[in-house]
Amino acid sequence: MRRWGMIKPLIQRDHAQHPPAYTPGYKSSVVRSPRLPKLSMPSTRTEETGPVFGHDVLGPQDNNLVINYTGQSAIGERVIVHGRLLDANANPIAGALIEIWQANAGGRYRHKKDGYLAPLDPNFGGCGRTITDDQGRYEFLTVRPGAYPWPNTVNDWRPMHIHFSVFGHAFGQRLITQMYFEGDPLIARCPIVNTIPDPAAIDRLIAPLDMACAMPMDALAYKFDIVLRGTRQTMFENRPEGL
């Protein structure tokens, strides 16, 4: 298998950890789930090698969601989200583009189809990006996103969460997941979370509080390591087999 410019043997994943496509408790899966057998389509040179992103297109405040939209401070509880991007053997993945997007402190996205009654924050865009360093480390300063209702059943709410997108060395190499916050009681009640059959896989999506990296009188910190393969793999939404 080719990944990050090198050829390495494929490490098979335990697909039992991943949710079935048809999960009636998550209403959208009823119409979205496939009805035909899966097809395995190998990647081509285009997906593996290009196009690539330029490291110089990132701005100095791209990983600071508190001020990167207007330059003025967003409203909400400030939090640091940090961690490492690792392979199955705990080796760091350097130079990877990580993007995040989220709702504001009131639980509303800056999107024209978001009809939740919570107000928009004029100073919060809700997205950011950064590149991992030579130790695979990344960091974002943001505000804790609010929970919000969604039309699944009569009274379902999404837990506080942040969406993560991890790119390899080409845009065809992309993994998407969500990070949840330790202690949120809505995690156990979320129909989307509950499509994951393995409780250990759910736990790997929950970032623990990291007081050692908190900023006194400023921001709490949460640590979220992302593992691409192996028994400690992070649960990804779009590619159960990873990169």
From TrEMBL:
Keyword Oxidoreductase in record: yes
NCBIfam families per record: protocat_beta
Domain Intradiol ring-cleavage dioxygenases: 49-230
UniProt xrefs under InterPro entries: Intradiol_dOase_C (IPR000627), Intradiol_dOase_core (IPR015889), Intradiol_RC_Dioxygenase (IPR050770), PCDO_beta_N (IPR024756), Protocat_dOase_b (IPR012785)
Similarity comment: Belongs to the intradiol ring-cleavage dioxygenase family.
Species of the source: Parasulfitobacter algicola
Chain spans, region Disordered: 15-54
Class of this enzyme: oxidoreductase
The protein's name in its UniProt record: Protocatechuate 3,4-dioxygenase subunit beta
Enzyme Commission number: 1.13.11.3
Pfam families, A to Z: Dioxygenase_C, PCDO_beta_N
Native organism taxonomy: Bacteria, Pseudomonadati, Pseudomonadota, Alphaproteobacteria, Rhodobacterales
Keyword Amino-acid biosynthesis: no
